[in-house]
Design goal:
Elements (H helix, E strand, L loop, with lengths): L3 H27 L63 H15 L11 H11 L4 H8 L6
Helix pairs in contact: 2-3, 3-4
Amino acid sequence: MAGPENVRKQTTWGGAAGIALLGFALVYRFFPEVIHVSPGQRPANLPVRTSAPPPPIDVRANPAPLVEFGPPRELAAISTEPEAPPEPDAPTTESITAQLAAADKAVAEDRLFEPVDDNALVLYRKVLDEDRTNRRARAAAWRPYRIA
């Protein structure tokens, strides 16, 4: 993490560079003769093409090669070993079961955020305070709800 001295230097140099660029742009726009460039002038030594332009390239005749992103197919091969089943939830206590039922009832009654001490969000958070790994409470606490 950058220290306060580095942040101060970066801010100072960035501001100075921005002001210099702004100054250059304003001078270029309003006083082009200072930089000796006129927008309508063309230098005499640039070659001028008098022949016909080259024919367009037919991209359908030579399709571009297929580019694949990611690891090589050998490394990305699907494992033949079966996946381990998900770990079951820890057994819930009676208080957690009661709080989950009360929270579900609060959702059904549209008490998502009010009253302050007895709403669905508070009840789900109480469950998570007792059991941080409770999947049902986590899913319900982060689920989007329709607020009428």
